[in-house]
Design a protein that fits this description.
Helices cover about 60% and strands about 0% of the residues. The chain has a two-stranded antiparallel ribbon. The chain is flat and about 130 Å long. The longest helix is centred in the first third of the chain and has 40 residues. α26 packs antiparallel against α27 and α38 runs parallel beside α40. The protein is mainly α and about 1150 residues long. A hairpin with a 2-residue loop joins β1 and β2.
Amino acid sequence: MVHVHGQRESESEPPASDLFDAVKAAKSDMQSLVDEWLDSYKQDQDAGFLELINFFIRSCGCKGTVTPEMFKKMSNSEIIRHLTEQFNEDSGDYPLTAPGPSWKKFQGSFCEFVKTLVYQCQYSLLYDGFPMDNLISLLTGLSDSQVRAFRHTSTLAAMKLMTSLVRVALQLSLHKDNNQRQYEAERNKGPGQRAPERLESLLEKRKELQEHQEEIEGMMNALFRGVFVHRYRDILPEIRAICIEEIGSWMQSYSTSFLTDSYLKYIGWTLHDKHREVRLKCLKALKGLYGNRDLTSRLELFTSRFKDRMVSMVMDREYDVAVEAVGLLILILKNMEGVLTDADCESIYPVVYASNRALASAAGEFLYWKLFYPACDARVAGGRERRRSPHTQRTFFHLLLSFFLESELHDHAAYLVDSLWDCAGPQLKDWESLTSLLLEKDQSLGDVQESTLIEILVSSVRQASEGHPPVGRVTGRKGLTSKERKIQADDKVKLTEHLIPLLPQLLAKFSADAEKAAPLLQLLSYFDLSIYCTRRLEKHLDLLLQQLQEVVVKHAEPAVLQASAHALYLLCKPEFTFFSRVDFARSQLVDLLTDRFQQELEELLQSSFLDEDEVYNLAATLKRLSAFYNAHDLTRWELYEPCYRLLRKAVDTGEVPHQVTLPALTLVYFSILWMLNCISESDASQPLSPQKQLLSLKGRMVAFCELCQSCLSDVEPEIQEQAFVLLSDLLLIFSPQMVVGGRDFLRPLVFFPEATLQSELASFLMDHVFIQPGELGSGHSQEDRLQIEQLHQRRRLLAGFCKLLVYGVLEMDAASDVFKHYNKFYSDYGDIIKETLTRARQMDRSHCSRVLLLSLQQLYTELLQEQGPQGLNELPAFSEMRDLARRFALSFGPQQLQNRDLVVVLHKEGIKFSLSELPPAGFSGQPPNLAFLELLSEFSPRLLHQDKQLLLSYLEKCLQRVSPDSSCTWGPVTTYRHSLSPVENTAEASPQGYPRSKKRRIEGPSRQHRGDISPSQEESLRLNSIPPTPTLTSTAVKSRQPLVELEEMEEEGGSELAFTQGQPRLGIRRSRSSSPQHFQTPVNALGPGLGNRLTRLSLMEEDEEELEIQDESSEEWQGTGKSSPSEHGLDLLDSTELNIEDF
């Protein structure tokens, strides 16, 4: 109970908002603000204390105030109950959570006020007994309130008050120690020198300090037991985070009293909290403790108990929590030797290959301190790090090689280099040591070690030159700072100057090995090539060109050839002064390859048989020419005609080996693209010359497409797939979109594929993409890797076909061949098919819905032909079709008004299809397509209530014409009728839900704590057994659900089971702790009852007779049927029923 202190009483209303407004404005100095309050308190203690109480009440967002009458006559619980009744329940925000710039700094100002209040009162009112004791009593009562705002704000105030008291207690402890030293020094003096008055004053001072310390400890004990012990497991994560953050600061600032197992256990238990922010606060608090080597000796017991949990948090699903966990383990590694076992460290090593760069860098730092630092310790002399010796650098790279190869965690060293870049960047940028290791004659490196060391060299050069991590690693940063850009530019110059003379030597040593030559050629991509000119290094350029030509002549591997062609492309820039000599070297190389090709081609065309060596040489020459044709314009060498003759012979006779046919196809493809590029860049104002070129190019392109179409039926799968890929690209390039952007002069080149070609492309897709592969194992075996590569190839083929659909090259109806496999092959191609479906809907919503229906019809017809009409709906394949229909239905989303006409037409066409074929004469069974109605019922939840009624009438009318007597007993008809019945989903009559009033969530008290725990158990850390993670005490009063609301909920379910499984029911408020995010049905912006005023669609458009439907507001439906893109809700496909993220 709040007791009145002092003789003066103020009957007037206290100035409740003075302190609050000043703290909210945060414009005045907190010390002067507190001093003003202290002056007013000294003048009128009751009024001053009332002002302080009302400040905290206002800070909670409560408009009510504590009056003098309440202050005198009511207890704390009565005051809080009265304020709770006055609380504004219409708003969900309060000062600590309110949005807007005016509240942005309130929490900081609020905490600063509490801190300054204790600081200014530490020599006066702090030990008065009245203000602090009553304030603590009030905050303790508020922290146990049902109202979240009271509980959150008072807990923050209480914990900040506790933190300030801890600082005061620390100062008192220091004063006591100082007083004790003075007393001992005075008492140890001789009898003649000792001053009795001095000793007496020191004793009095000691007694006073002792009394003050006892009072402070009493306040801290009241706050800890009254607030912290209950609120560290509050249902609100913000409150739990506040408690953990503050107890961590107490342990750091006053470790003598708080750094004990009885307090540490609270942090240890909360490491298991399910909310990210709370776990983060735990780890940060522990980092402050483990970072101080003087405190680690007192953490041994805690470490042995909770080490496994701290190590496991490296794999936390929240990246920032995992980063803090790794940082904590680094401190443990540095300051507590031998605590982390090899098994603990081995569980952290794989994180260096994580996709998140912050986490990978943290793991890289851990790896550095564990593995590299002890062996490669850089001595510090005079405050500056001296240059590492060559031996130290060699040791570093040997350790790096050993870790990468022996751990067998990853195949790409670039990610390991990036993880170590922040902590071991200087060592990784020691390219002199790296190249000297590679160029040593008497070296002990094996073949695999050499390849890995070259990869490390290329990765470090790329990282220094580009300044960003490798592909696939997320940084979260937008760009480099000016300082980082300067370092990047300097590093690029240094590496270029060092590697230009050494690159020819490296290629000369490793040119025979394709795995080593290809990455070495990639180094040119990261050079500052202008240095060849400015530093007069042309002689090294000549050596490089010689080595490059030797590499091309020696190898036929695609990776080496692509790297060689790209390296030559980088050097063949007209702005370089050495362009002429590089162009000459390129011409020499292409002349050499062309001459070889012409000779080997004549032998092939004239001879009826070629041995393996001749076939290999011709295929290798074609691969080299194809790789260079990709990067360089080789049109003047006129390679199209001989390659076309070669392909024509391959198609006509089948005598050309497929090893030769594959690169020949690619070479002709590149020749067509380079010719198109030349025409596109030519001057369109000269129509005569380009016109001849256009006709020539069109003829070549059509002829090549015919060749590729013939190759689709080749016996070799590689040739089929290559022809399909090239055809897809050419059809896309020469589609109508090529004239966009002012290139109308290219219109003669536009090519439309014939129906036969479209059919063959679709057939190829069925035979090569939608096939069932074998079961995939762990992914580490050679067979599993081959399956993964094949899956990627099939995905590329499907993506090429879908692009033709999206850009209108193929008819939209061809998409049914893709959509009908959506459900069956969802794990392999779900993202591609979903994106195609989305784009198709954006192009033409009506046509897209017809294609979806066509997909189901095709599947049904195929199953009907295979199995017959008897028992069709009991087959597993039919259940798969139902799942596909449900997925298609979900793709329409929650916008019932927008999709109304589409869904109605889909139902109508589906009914026609199901009754399109009658049973044979003399047979009284149901029509063979009737089971299709069960598939159609999956789309019924997408209908409005009034449309269901009309479709039901339309169904009955159609059934009367088919079979007037027996139709009512057919199972599919019954199922479909049920899906259209009004009881099925009454909530659908109003497609958009009514807006609901926003109520404040009232949470129950948490006074019922476990009473069976003894004080010794509460204060000690149990070591003999693992204590269970304490259940977070929910303070929510769970009100019972109204019966009417539950009934409405059951009606909303119906047959739309899959839909409602993924969406929260409108009658249930979701728990705040639930992690998955679901989509809510958008609120109807036009108000309730709109569905009753909307036009009913005319559904019955039969040839013989039409069912007249009275329509009072057709114009209104036409107006509301259109909606802006901003009104379109999120697509529910894959995010509700299957809880799969959008791609």
